[in-house]
Amino acid sequence: MLELLWLIPALPFAGFLVLVLAGNLPRAAAAVVGCASVGLSMLVALGICIQFVNSPPPGDAFTQSIWNWFETAGLSAGVAFHLDALSMVMVMVITGVGFLIHLYSTEYMEDDPGFQRFFAYLNLFVGAMLVLVLADNLVLLLLGWEGVGLCSYLLIGFWYRDSANGRAARKAFVVTRVGDTALLLGLFLLFAELGTLHIQDLLGRASEQWEPGSGVALAAALLLLGGAVGKSAQLPLQTWLPDAMAGPTPVSALIHAATMVTAGVYLIARTNALFELAPAAMLTVAIVGAVTLLAAGFAALVQSDIKRVLAYSTISQLGYMFLALGVGAWSAALFHFMTHALFKALLFLAAGALILSLHHEQNLFRMGGLRKKLPVIFWTFLIGSISLAALPLIGSGFYSKEKILWDVWISPHGGPALWAAGMAGAAITALYTFRMVFLAFFGELRTDVSHRPRGRVAFVLIVLAVLSTIGGGVELPHTFGHVTFFSDFVGTAIETQVALPPGLDAVLWALLAMASLLVVLGTLAAWYLYVKAPGIPERLASSPAGSALHRLWFSGWGFDRVYEALIVIPFRTAARINRRDAIDFIYLATAGLTRALHVVLSETQTGRLRWYALVLTTGTLALILIAFIR
Amino acid sequence: MILLWLIAIPLIGGILAWTAERWSTTAPRWIALAATAVPLVLALTLWDGDPGDFWLAEFETSWIPAAGIDFYLAADGLGLLMVLLTFFLGVLSVGISWNTVPSRPGFFYFNLLLILAGTTGVFTALDLFLFFFCWELMVLPMYFIIGIWGHENRNYAAIKFFIFTQASGLLLLIAILGLHYAHAAETGVQTFRYGELLGTELAPGLGMGLMLGFFVAFAVKLPAFPFHTWLADAHTEAPTAGSLILAGLLLKTGGYGLVRFVVPLFPEESAAFAPVAMALGAIGILYGAKLAFAQTDLKRLIAYTSVSHMGFVLVGVFAWNAWAVQGVVVQMIAHGLSTGALFILAGGIQDRLHTRDLNAMGGFWPQAPCMAALALFFAMASLGLPGLGNFVGEFLILLGSFQVNVVATVLAALGLVGATVYSLWIIQRVFHGEPRESKGLTDLSLREITILGVLAAGLLGLGLYPKPVLHMSEPTVRALHETAPPPGAALATGQPENPVAHAVPPNERVPTDP
Questions:
Q1: How far apart are CA B351 and CA B373, in angstroms?
Q2: For A449, which DSSP code?
Q3: Which residues of A touch B494 (CB under 8 A)?
Q4: CA of A586, closest CA in chain B: separation in Å?
Q5: For residue A81, what is the DSSP state?
Q6: Are A160 and A166 in contact (CB under 8 A)?
Q7: Cα gap B44→B347, rounded to integer Å
Q8: pLDDT (tens digit per residue) in B41-69
């Protein structure tokens, strides 16, 4: 079964090729090709996963080389796949969630004129994402990395008629490419120092050759972090993600929540040995995560567009993953990646169904009271929200978030300050999540329902609701349940784990209780502010300080305006001023001077003898004069 | 002998096409197609050779013995790749102008074929006088193509092109003669042969002067900042086939010259000059990208992207390690394909709408989906998407240059962000946005789809399996490095470096035992 590994990325690529080259297919055929390619890929992945868990290959990893991509002067990059527990988790989430979202899209996009194009892009994305997580060298990883960036661009700008969508798409591509440039330089540095770009070799050599805390390790880790920050929409390159909501909602669910944006998390987890050699880089990762999760959480509190709330919440949850990575809690980060992929995909898809039911209305303040009208959407959205808010015991988000918070507390890289940021974030998460739930589904009805989800949409929502409820069961805290299936599995790929010191049970119980209390308080606050006394938020927002803060948060802390003023406008101005290319004026001036000389000299050729005689005499006199003076 | 045919067939074909014009309007293009396709096949037969044997083909006969001038042609892996590119793009340029030459098709194809003959000579001549002869042979026909079949402002563009190339050609001639006399003074042998001129000992000032003569000539052709200003006008005004040849081949002669002549003939001078050249390259990358973004004329925009892409070549040549030089080879081929394709698309739009103004475009996707999809593909190639040829070139160049000059590499890498900005801008301005009524905008014809499809396949092949190309150019790179060792030679060859041995000539070493 393991030999079929190459099929996992090859099938979606094949689907893409068929959809692009086959000309205009009937919708049903395009849907079948689009779904079947990813569905088959998922089945192959499932088979491989079962075999991988039951009888792990030697060394807990399997490598398959397809062809030698390029090789010159000691640089060798193959199209070769490396499967270990880390990539296995990623592959399962990508193909599983990917398939469900393809299925959902067959109904969601059914009236769209670009139906076939949509599935082509979506297949290409899944293929590229699988290459990213399976690549055994960093050059191939980069191929997947840029490939998913391309698909993100294509799908954000899918409805290309509106130039705002085009702008959002270009912004996403360009901003992430800034991070990619850092990643590229990181690759060059690693190759110059270690002489290989093969990931496993490189990590081995780095551990042998580099002292912990050495400058070169720090530089390399920070450059990789630059790439991760761009792709995973962390501060300061997070600005593209809220605008990326211009794309169709299934795209937001798949690319901008469940899979692509976690590529940065994957990259850091994959190169964990490198980061462990650079404690300062680890700390940077943790701080970036903590600051991002808080900043994005506050921004999510005041958005009125339901998709933008979810977008900021994605940034914030990715911040949790970065926080976990930064303290060395690798398996906690991956655990949260997995649960987040399930419940955030669910939330986006439910939101998409909701938006479609309301004539494309996305404004939360024009929704309300939809609990009874749209029961399937309400219940599934509620289940997703419970997970996102991490309400105690029910929902997988609780288990993954608690694990992160604990690990931050006990890890030698962590500490109370980072933990406190995570705790504050948990309360904010509960508040903005249930603000969304109460605004959309409670209170009075504001917009009529025009359309109800049918079979495939409802089916996908229910499947995801079930998965995001039970998904947390693969890892339960040791204070109750004590299931360590997930961390044991990930532990086969990443050896260093946050060790649990003995005798901390009482502390852990206390942490658990505090976190749960905060989450419940946040939920109750949301209920009070948006159901019981809905005038309070308005009054807060209309006070001078409140309205300033509201504007700041609403604009996502004003990053866009700063970048606009510091980079975009100067660049545009410089481009406009120098459109005609100043360098060319040097050559034009030379030509002009030559021509002017020609005019002057030809004026002197009058043909009159008296004039020539005069010039001749004057010249001679001048020469004699000069001779005398000297 | 094959090499002689590679030059003779286009020359003969050109004359035939010109004469055939009198009795038929369609005959010239068939003759031209044959005169490009046959050499392409002939050149492909050389591919079988083992590049490890080094010269895959040679042709030699005495020309002007009194002055030591030989008619000496030879192709190694690098030369063969460039010759293949020449005839590959030659066939496509005949195809793209198939029924779009408004007047005097015979004379048009005569000029086109003359350029191809000259280019082939440039890529294979190993006698510097012959090289110069072929170098000049390319210029005049291109002047005619721009000046006769160009667009509105063609006279200005043609004259500008001519003056720039002639002025730089003069420098090249002086530098070649200077090298010739310096070699004759040193050894008493009068020769223009590349192999014998290698390793000529030159006084420091003279060496630098001669190196700069060669450098400026090639930098104008490349074109490198600040010699790039002729390019925008020439490209904008040239007919589509002219732009294709200009971008795909004429610019490559500059890059080829840098690799083949500048660094090997003047290793020390080049090493000293490398920081300046790499800085110029990095500036060209960023400046070209910025200018491209600002343009409202589609062809002018694409022309400036060439300045940006060729900056990578300059950076790579002067980084001079195996990765960078291999990257330069791939970059030259990939740029020929991707930018050539973009010019074909721009030309296709101009033929349909009679404008190049971006402000008159937008929303073409529904009307011309094939054109849009292919434009997207080539825009992605142009921004360096992995999996397509340009990525391999740029990646290898930057990987190599990083080990030599970190600052220039960082600046050059930022050019990739610039490339993203302008490439996506093309797609946005032409194909995205609200569809507008554009009379006459039809989708690509089968002929255009075939030509662009071949180019796309080439880029995909180069991007996913560049091995044959790298394999072909590898012995050349190795040989060039024997003449002019790369900086930090230990890293590239795996040999332990002995800095003392490099710094001090053997006879000056201080004896350790008194």
A1: 19
A2: -
A3: 74
A4: 10
A5: E
A6: yes
A7: 29
A8: 888 888 876 666 678 788 888 888 888 88
Q: Residue B136 has which token pair?
A: 């000049």
Taking the domains of chain B in order of start, what are their residue ranges? 2-483
Instruction: Please give the Cα distance from A283 to B499 (Å, whole number).
Output: 40
Comparing CA positions, the residue from B120, B115, B79 lying closest to residue B94 is B115
Segment A388-417 mean pLDDT: 85
- The amino acid occupying position B493 is T
Is B190 exposed, middle or buried (CB count within 10 Å of its CB: 0-12, 13-18, 19+)? middle
pLDDT band at B492 (very low <50, low <70, confident <90, very high): very low
**Contact between A174 and B294 using a beta-carbon 8 Å cutoff:** no
Contact assignment for A185 to B413 by CB distance below 8 Å: yes
Q: Tokens representing A62?
A: 């399997």
Residues 2-61 of A with CB under 8 A from B: 20
* A262-296 per-position pLDDT tens digit: 999 999 999 988 998 888 999 999 999 999 999 99
Read off the pLDDT band of B503 (50, 70, 90). Answer: very low
pLDDT at B367 over 70: yes
Which one-letter DSSP state was computed for residue B78?
Answer: H
Task: Say how far apart CA B225 and CA B285 lie, in whole Å.
Answer: 9
Q: How far apart (Å, rounded) are the C-alpha atoms in residues B299 and B307?
A: 13
Chain B contact for A153, CB < 8 A? yes
Q: Can you tell me which residue has the tokens 């270009």?
A: A170
- DSSP class of B266: S
A584/B229 CB distance under 8 A: yes
Distance (Å) from the alpha carbon of A561 to chain B's nearest alpha carbon: 19
Which among A74, A189, A574 is the nearest to B290, CB-wise? Answer: A574
Q: What is the pLDDT of residue B509?
A: 36
DSSP code at position A444: -
pLDDT for residue A150 is more than 70 = yes
Residue B349, beta-bridge partner list: none
Q: Is the dihedral of CA A153, A156, A159, A163 positive or negative?
A: negative
**Average model confidence (pLDDT) for chain B?**
86
Six-digit token string for A430? 């509960």
DSSP B304-357: HHHHHHHHHHHHHHHH-SHHHHHHHHHHHHHHHHHHHHHHHHHHHHHHHHS--B
Partners of residue B71 on adjacent β-strands: B61
Is the predicted pLDDT of residue B301 greater than 80, yes or no?
Answer: yes
CA of A143 vs chain B CAs: smallest distance (Å): 5
pLDDT of residue A457: 86
Each residue of B204-251: pLDDT tens digit? Answer: 888 899 999 999 999 999 888 888 888 888 888 888 888 899 888 999
Q: Token digits for A365?
A: 């303040």
Tokens representing residue A77 in the block: 């990059």
What's the half-sphere exposure (Cβ side, CA atoms, 13 Å) at B285? 29
pLDDT at residue B52, rounded to an integer: 64
Backbone angles phi, psi at A69, to 5 degrees: -75, -65
Across the range A355-369, mean pLDDT stands at 83
The tokens for A15 are: 């689907």
Do the chains contact at A178 and B228, CB–CB below 8 Å? no
Q: Measured between alpha carbons, how far is residue B327 from residues A620, B49, B246, B397 in Å? A: 64, 22, 21, 5
Of the pLDDT bands very low, low, confident and very high (cuts 50, 70, 90), residue B502 is: very low
- Cα A264 to Cα A273: distance, rounded to the nearest angstrom: 15
The CA distance from A241 to A156, in Å, is 10
Residue-wise DSSP of A320-338: HHHHHHHTT-HHHHHHHHH
What average pLDDT does the structure give for chain A?
87
| Token representation of residue A285 | 């990762």
Q: Distance, in angstroms, between A163 CA and closest chain B CA?
A: 5
Evaluate whether A194 touches A209 at the Cβ level (below 8 Å).
Answer: yes
**pLDDT at B330 (0 to 100):** 93
